[in-house]
Amino acid sequence: MEAIFEKVDLSNERSISAFLFDKPKFDGHWHFHPEYELTYIKQGTGIRYVGNHVTDFQSGDLVLLGSHLPHCWRNLDDHKGVAQSMVIQWVPSVLGEVPELSAIYKMMAMAGRGIKFNTNDNQEIGNQMQRLIELSPLDQYIGLITLLAKLSQERNIQLLAGASYAYDLSDGTEDRLNKIQNYVKDHFREKIKLSDLSPIVGMTDQTFSRFFSRTMQKPFFEFLNEYRVNIASRLL
């Protein structure tokens, strides 16, 4: 799927956006934006897409995303309840260039692949993110630096997208990959063949196979198997 460019709501007076996402479900489009993003899942389960990485998520999921890295969180059809997440987004220039922040810069460079934090402090970090929402712009800035400094010391992390992943921003990719993603979500329990998908995106089987491998940097059936494994692990 081609990621949609998302315009983050930032004014001339603010370089940081902090908010609570609270809706019936996570159903966002595959999208990207130049701002960095830290997302904490307060409540909800489903499938998380970051670059060419796909896995399940649940409450407590904490992920840092780099600039222009495509991503989305989506609930499955059996989702019940609400979908809540704490989200902080900030422009790349917000950290400036000072030697005291070298550990943060190193972490932000790794965030180009997406970083999942697997610590016992995730809930407290989520609470800190929530408190940032009500702060003044200056206090919000100080709070963000403090939070990133803490995260930069964490060692129990997982890099998500492949080391060589580079997103194709060409026109038409978004619609095709959204169709593929939706088809997999609706039919993953069934046997899926390339011939089931290629007509949906207006391609031959061979062209579809090349398109998917080039865009996601993995073969379609590897992607499908990962999707099924993550659904199974979530159910367990």
Characterization of the model:
The chain has 236 residues and is α+β, with helices and mostly antiparallel strands. 35% of the residues lie in helices and 22% in strands. Strands 2-9-4-7-10-11 form a 6-stranded antiparallel sheet, with helices on one face. A 3-stranded antiparallel sheet has the order 6-5-8, with helices on one face. The chain is globular. It starts with a strand and ends with a helix. The mean pLDDT is 86.
Note poorly predicted spans.
Answer: none
H/E series, N to C? Answer: EEEEEEEEEHEHHEHHHH
User: Which strand order do you get reading across the main beta sheet?
Assistant: 2-9-4-7-10-11
% residues in beta strands? 15-25%
Shape, principal axes of CA atoms: globular
Q: Determine the N-to-C terminus distance.
A: 29 Å
Structural class: alpha+beta
Write the layout of secondary structure elements.
Blueprint lengths: L3 E2 L10 E8 L7 E2 L3 E8 L2 E5 L2 E5 L4 E4 L5 E4 L8 E8 L11 H9 L4 E3 L4 H11 L4 H15 L5 E3 L13 H15 L6 H4 L7 H12 L3 H16 L1
Parallel strand pairs: 1-3
Antiparallel strand pairs: 2-9, 4-7, 4-9, 5-6, 5-8, 7-10, 10-11
Helix pairs in contact: 2-3
